[in-house]
Every structure is written in C-alpha cells, then in structure tokens.
C-alpha cells in the first residue's frame, strides 16, 4: 500500500489487500527484534534459567552446521535423539521473543519464517489449510511467538499443520503467552501446552525461563488518557512531520470486522501514530478479540497510540477478563499501556 507520508488519515477509509505471498513475506521478526542476537540478550544473573536457555538455543540455532557440541536437531553418535522443536515457557518480559528472533537470525536456513500464532492461523483462514501446508512444506524453520491455548479449534489446526511440517523435516521454535500473574504460571503453562498439542508433545523440548519483566511494566498499569485539546495537539504535531490516523473507537472497531486479521498489518502501513477518540468498553467478545489482534500488530510495529475517553487498559470488562481469553486480554492491556506511554 502506498500511503501519504504526512498528514492525517482515517483507518476506516483503508481497504487493505494482501496476497498469500505478501502474508508470507511479512513472516519475519518485528522491527524491535530485527537485530536480535544471542549476544545482545542480557541474561539476568538472578535467574540462571535465562543463561541456560540462551546456551541451549544457541546450540539449537547452529544445529545445521555441525557445531562443536552438536545442534539440537543433529543426531549424535551416542545418546538420545534430539527433538525437532523447542518451546520457551515463561512470563512477560523475560526475553522469550528476543531469543526466538535470535534463533531465526542465527540459524543458517534457506527458508525460515517468524510469526505470531495469530498470524499463522490467519494465514490458514485466508489461504485454506491445504494451500498453507503446500506453502510451508520444505521450510527449514518455523518460529511461532505466543502460542495460544485458549481456542481449541485454532490450536488443533496448528497442531495438525506443525505435525505435517515436522514430518517433512521442518524445525520448530515456539513461545508461550503466559503473563506473570496468571494462575498456574510457570510449569503449569508448559504442561498446558503439551496437553493441548498432545500429537506434537514428543517433538518439543520445553525450556523454562524465569525472571521479572525487564520493562518493569505492570500488567495492571494504566494507559495514558488525553483530553480532547491534548489529543488534537498531539495528532497535529505528528501530522506536521509524519502520518497519523484519527478515528473514533466505535468506528475503528466496526471497521476491524470488515478486514481480515491477516491484513491488519497493512491497515497500519506507514503510520507514525494511531489516534483513537472516545474509547469505550467492549460488550462483544468477537469485537474485543479482533481488537487484540489489531493491537498486536500496532505493538509489533512499535507505533504509539494516542487516545481519549476510557483508559485503554479498561476496555475489557471484568467478565471478559474472568473468561477463557484472559491471557489474550492481559497481554493486550500490557501492550496498550506501553503504546500509550511511548
């Protein structure tokens, strides 16, 4: 999409198109992890599991070129066979995505892909299951960030997809989406993951990464709320030298229902800031989940959000936070807080 580079646009006027090849081309680490390496990962000395995971994953990433110790996927002359996948289990902000991106960058692979669980399931939804399998067949590596466990249908589709790809030689790396205050956080999440993808459990080695959020950002923090005058000034300031969107919350949420989630990345193409006026709480779960997917793309692109009305950390009512999609909503709240304060 070719967009005006300065001024104000309305997302509700955008009708992004995205081909299957465009979607696949977008399966790379997000901008903030474009240069992530094992060397730049700062393991916390107070949590030895971080350094241990770093060392094991470095071996994982070098597995195709016969490193000194042998890679995670090479069959050693003696000892147990290494598994074709690794699963990183831990809370927010312990560096799982950084390590996942480091694997992607370090592994000498001809065909490798990096995307969130939502991006992969959106691709299946847009292209169909068979076409997606054909597209990825023969890939050397699939990195899956924030593997979701709250939608049995999507989880089983991904299980089946990954099973077919592993059988054809594809290596896998995945992370969990467990927030630090979630019930059963820690090893429970790993057990949850392995149970849900029981057909694939034997393919994964689970690595536990302990620690505190390096961003020191509380999940229950508050997003920045602007007055109407402050909002207008902020939007105008961005528009003077960049591109900013300006939509009411209600109109934006309605528009998201008309755009396939796989195209949300194009919806925000070229933006330097996202403006949302008159924010209100959700009363429809489908709309709330689409908004979560949208915020994931905004956060990955590191685009700041400016908003009026209800604080964005309050858009998911208690009954939603108490339901089956709790993890998704808590992750979205964390990202909304960060995006409004940036």
Automatic annotation (TrEMBL):
InterPro entries hit by this protein: ATPase_AFG1-like, P-loop_NTPase
Keywords for the protein's UniProt record, in alphabetical order: ATP-binding, Cell cycle, Cell division, Nucleotide-binding
SUPFAM superfamilies from the UniProt entry: P-loop containing nucleoside triphosphate hydrolases (SSF52540)
Signal peptide coordinates: none
Biological process per Gene Ontology, one example term: cell division
Entry protein name: Cell division protein ZapE
Organism: Microbacterium aquimaris
